[in-house]
Amino acid sequence: MTKRTRAALLLATTLLLTNLACKSGDQAQSNANTPVKTGNVTVTSPVGPEGSANQGTADQKAAPNANENPFSELVMLYSQLFTARMKNDRAKVEGLLADDYKETTADGKVLTKAQVLSNINPNQKFDTYSLDDLKSTTNNDTGTVTGRVSVVREGKTESWQFTDTFRKEQDHWLDTSSKITNYKKQ
User: Fold this and answer.
1) CA-CA distance, 29 to 171, in Å (whole number)?
2) Choosing a second label site near 38 at 20 to 30 A (CA), which of 75, 133, 146, 155?
3) Which of 1.10.150.120, 3.40.980.10, 3.40.720.10, 3.10.450.50 would CATH assign to domain 3-49+65-185?
4) Is the pTM of this model over 0.70?
5) What are the tens digits of pLDDT across the range 78-137?
6) If we measure between CA atoms, which residue out of 12, 11, 25, 102 comes closest to residue 66?
7) How far apart, in whole angstroms, are the C-alpha atoms of residue 65 and residue 67?
8) How far apart are CA 32 and CA 25, in angstroms?
């Protein structure tokens, strides 16, 4: 894949996520607890006070605070983190991971932030990479992003599901843990 094609793919992904964030922001003004779906990216908002997802329509309920829309922010942050990892941008990855970050790989190994950062290799190139079925929930100063990843490198496709947990510290979200499941290599 050429640099121009990769750039176009990255731009399309960025535009999709920006569009999603804008639509989610509009939705937050009418209902922060209704799932938002754009293409194959889905963002689900926080769980209601009774512990179950709020299933009301946008016209039936009002957001508790229309200026806050943390679930789309988490999806954007995860997208930035994923892209930084695919582009081997160590500084960006380091800034988005909490100091106590732990990553559980599909084979059960647990990696620390330092180990993840040491695995970033500028010589490792990906032909393509994508995120799919992104969903996010928040509860006060914690949040979760789930979804699927697909990467192609050296003509081989790898895919997996992930669950990442975020914590808000000093008004900034940091990724505290990641769990990878259903890893497949074709």
Assistant:
1) 21
2) 155
3) 3.10.450.50
4) no
5) 999 999 999 999 999 999 999 999 999 999 999 999 999 999 998 888 889 999 999 999
6) 25
7) 5
8) 9
